[in-house]
Automatic annotation (TrEMBL):
Keywords: Membrane, Transmembrane, Transmembrane helix
Protein name (database record): AI-2E family transporter
Species, as recorded: Almyronema epifaneia S1
Family annotation (InterPro entries): AI-2E-like
Signal peptide: none
Length: 378
């Protein structure tokens, strides 16, 4: 390799290292882009009714900020209060588990050796379990950091929504000139996919929250708002979220005077998830980019490991964007365009991809004839 190539490779490695170090900031920027796309989508819908954009976008931003303020004033304080009580209740319930196991061992007419092992294990793991319960939602503790990150996302979202074309053109400048038009088309597909995902997941989460709130209220489970809001928020996390959301109401039901309600809560959540999975999701997400379940779970594990809880929360939109780029850029524009010439010899001739030819302004038929002539000469 020449000196210039070595310098280019070193600069590339340094760039990747810097990007990895600021990955949390990049994830916040991606969150701001999602919010800006949502605001632009709503503004376009308002424009369809004859409202100019200079009035439509401020109206959408004002409505969005108003809803956010009402949410933080009306729902967040009681949720935090109930959530704190829920954590205390779960900790006290875990403290009672060894005693419950000992009582069960005493009441049984026969001896189970495994119960003694369970009792000893629970007694030994109490301190660890308490630490897990207290730190499971540790990101709620650093209030100032969360407020600053939320403020940063809101400001970036509004700035991106005011003039999206300028920021889009600036991003396209980082792509080679012959591929910018194609990259712009791929970005349009990503935008459509993210809009479909946001609309579908919001409807689905509100649906899960409403049914959970109504069902738990009928069953008389304590801390209904905390359980229902957790179910709605965790619905943003496929596969893992619904499983986590059912744990807290079942434990609260087991600690209540009527432990049989735990079975009713379990059945209720199964019914809600089946309705959401087999009826609501196919209806509201019919145009969403589909991902294989194994790939979805692998993406969640990867993004949660790399970015933490926020990466787990945004794993699905990140995976959707990654799938579109891999499918359009790597598969369609590169791998599908590599054609092996049917020669008698073992020499293979690579034909220029049509996307690159079109982007360069060349005639596709002329290039094809040139490739055929090359094959004949060989």
């Amino acid at each position: 390799m020449k000196l210039g190539q070595w310098l280019g490779l070193i600069c590339l490695i340094i760039s990747f290292y810097i990007l990895w170090q600021i990955r949390q900031i990049l994830l916040l920027i991606f969150t701001a882009i999602i919010v800006a796309i949502a605001l632009n989508s709503l503004a376009r819908r308002v424009e369809q009714y004859g409202t100019p954009r200079k009035f439509a976008l401020p109206a959408v931003i004002f409505a969005f900020l108003l809803l956010a303020i009402l949410f933080f004033i009306g729902i967040v304080p009681p949720f935090i209060e109930q959530f704190s009580l829920l954590i205390e209740l779960l900790i006290s319930g875990f403290e009672r588990l060894p005693e419950f196991v000992r009582q069960l061992e005493t009441d049984l007419p026969f001896e189970l050796p495994s119960l003694s092992m369970v009792t000893d294990w629970l007694a030994a793991q109490n301190a660890t379990a308490f630490g897990i319960f207290r730190n499971f939602f540790s990101f709620f503790n650093d209030t100032l950091q969360i407020l600053l990150q939320t403020l940063l996302v809101l400001i970036l979202s509004i700035m991106l929504a005011v003039n999206p074309a300028a920021y889009r053109d600036a991003g396209l400048k980082l792509i080679p000139s012959f591929y910018r038009r194609r990259a712009d088309d791929i970005l349009c597909e990503c935008e459509i996919a993210l809009v479909n995902w946001m609309g579908g997941i919001l409807i689905s989460s509100v649906f899960v929250f409403a049914l959970s709130f109504i069902g738990l209220s009928v069953l008389g489970i304590r801390l209904v708002l905390a359980h229902a809001l957790l179910a709605g928020l965790l619905n943003f996390i496929p596969n893992i979220g619904p499983t986590l959301s059912v744990g807290s109401p079942i434990l609260v039901a087991l600690l209540s005077p009527d432990p049989w309600k735990a079975i009713a809560v379990f059945v209720l959540y199964i019914i809600i998830q089946n309705i959401e999975s087999y009826w609501l999701t196919p209806t509201v997400m019919a145009r969403q980019v589909s991902l294989l379940p194994a790939l979805t779970l692998a993406a969640q594990i990867f993004f949660a490991t790399a970015f933490g809880f926020l990466g787990l929360l945004l794993a699905l939109p990140l995976a959707v964007v990654a799938k579109i780029w891999l499918q359009e850029f790597l598969i369609k524009d590169i791998l599908d365009q590599w054609v092996e010439s049917p020669l008698r010899s073992s020499v293979a001739v690579t034909v220029l991809p049509e996307a690159v030819v079109a982007a360069e302004g060349l005639d596709v038929q002329t290039v094809a004839e040139g490739n055929e002539g090359t094959s004949e000469e060989i």
